[in-house]
Write a structure and sequence with these properties.
Shape: globular
Number of helices: 2
Helix content: 25-40%
Distance between the termini: 42 Å
Strand order of the largest sheet: 1-2-3
Structural class: alpha+beta
Oligomer: single chain
Largest sheet: 3 strands, antiparallel
Number of domains: 1
Strand content: 15-25%
Length: 93
Amino acid sequence: MNEPELVSPFRIAFREEGPFVNVYLAKQESMEGAMHIGSCMKSILNAEAPAQFLRLKEIFEIGIAAAIKDVLGVEVSKFETNRAPDHEKAGNA
């Protein structure tokens, strides 16, 4: 029997802020209370765009999946990739 698919109440949000791409663990529906979990200079990511960004994304997905496994004992099967909702797009978000 197949187990029901669990959907995380959190997401990994990437935002361009000044000279950095900042990474947050945020609620699905909002950036309110988001926890900053890392940063990378945009110039580093632009060196081999989009390959460098995809590498950064993969690093954070691996790390968050490991943290979820450690804390909740649940294996992450996939991460969904979505564009930021319009209400979050301020500046270069």
